[in-house]
Write a structure and sequence with these properties.
Distance between the termini of chain A: 42 Å
Oligomer: homodimer
Number of domains of chain A: 2
CATH topology of the largest domain in chain A: Rossmann fold
Order of helices and strands of chain A: HEHHEHEHHEEEHEHEEH
Largest sheet of chain A: 7 strands, mixed
Structural class of chain A: alpha/beta
Number of helices of chain A: 9
DNA sequence: AAGTGTGAAAGCATTCACAGCA
DNA sequence: TGCTGTGAATGCTTTCACACTT
């Protein structure tokens, strides 16, 4: 076993990918598998899977393979996914509403506990489990609740301002759907999802 | 200038990223910049930017820098984004509706021209510009229209079946929001967006 | 003087190949 | 025998550093 810190950045993304597939295998009742089995459905090299896992421990049995449920638990523990994570949502437009109504996230352990918008027509409405609040209360509410994670789903025009408020409020990680770069301190974790960019990737070379 | 085929996979993703920032700079009226300027806001190495561009040509002026609008046009041409792209959407749930109502995509040149669902309560409804059709007509309708690109926004349970129909219908690229792996021929381009996985990435090591 | 374009070097990540264990 | 775990080799990508152009 290597040092966990040596694990390439992409390894973490792949561990999440493996975990997703393991959950799928469990639903199908597949209790055991080899790195070759998994590599085949995921279309990758089996050595890559073994190496990725080896940064964190020895989870398999030589000559046999891996136990699906056991490895899923190990991965959840490595990835910090064996607990519930609370999020604050800023921007209750099309995407924000989709997230609030999406039962999949809660199923995976992610829960939106507060939502904010600036539009008076939306403020006060209850969507899913939360009631939308005025974004002018964002900073104090988040600071007081101690929420560590946020989702930005506002327009490009408001994104930086919202990001600044979240950082001031003490948020440590931000998932951002706004199609623009956000400037935040290096200590803040930022994961962007830009749907138009992904469509662009799809279209390249077609 | 190197051969375009030598460009690393990640270079394409970064070109899209540069283009997005260039559009932002244009809105702010910034007509010229150096690789160092751009690298600073994007928090990256200026040499990386120059090298990425060098796979596709020489777009700058030594001693001066790059012209924002001109480079944006070049990038759009390299990335095939100087034309409109039509998509078919399958699955008009929370995410599907958000995409149909999202004006940002159309602004970027991506247009959803057909939408399908299996739920009779949704079929026949008009959302945004399109009327939702019965998914049982998916294959014939897409084949006949010759649509090359699709977005899958259905549940895990239906995703593979929908993917198969799309492939049969002749689709060449698929953006998939379903949180599961999809098996498609190697000739089909597949870009997955799994929001729960991105949240997992955000949470790792926190 | 300023900033691009690019070989060469350095730094990473992936794959191979096989020792080691059940 | 079968499959894991892993050092070593291979293959990529990023960064450096400087010749070159305006």
């Amino acid at each position: 076993m290597r040092d966990v810190a040596d694990a390439p950045k992409e390894t973490i993304r792949r561990l999440l990918f493996y975990l997703r597939q393991l959950d799928c295998m469990l639903r199908e009742g597949k209790e055991r598998f080899s790195s070759e089995d998994l590599a085949e459905v995921l279309r990758m090299n089996p050595a890559q899977i073994r190496k990725d896992l080896s940064y964190f421990g020895e989870f398999g049995t030589r000559g046999v393979g891996y136990n699906t449920e056991q490895l899923a638990n190990e991965l959840r523990s490595i990835l910090n996914l064996n607990k519930r994570w609370e999020f604050v949502l800023v921007g209750v437009g099309n995407i924000g509403v989709a997230l609030l109504r999406n039962p999949e996230l809660r199923k995976q352990g992610f829960e939106i506990v507060m939502a904010f918008d600036k539009d008076p027509r939306v403020i006060g409405k209850t969507i899913g489990e939360v009631t939308v609040e005025d974004v002018s209360h964002l900073r104090e509410r988040v600071e007081q609740a101690g929420t560590r994670l946020a989702i930005i789903a506002v327009s490009v025009e408001s994104a930086q301002e919202v990001g600044d408020s979240l950082v001031e409020a003490g948020v440590e990680g931000i998932l951002c759907f706004a199609p623009c770069s956000l400037t935040v301190p290096k200590t803040i974790r930022l994961v962007p999802i830009d749907i138009a960019m992904e469509l662009g990737l799809l279209v390249y070379g077609l």
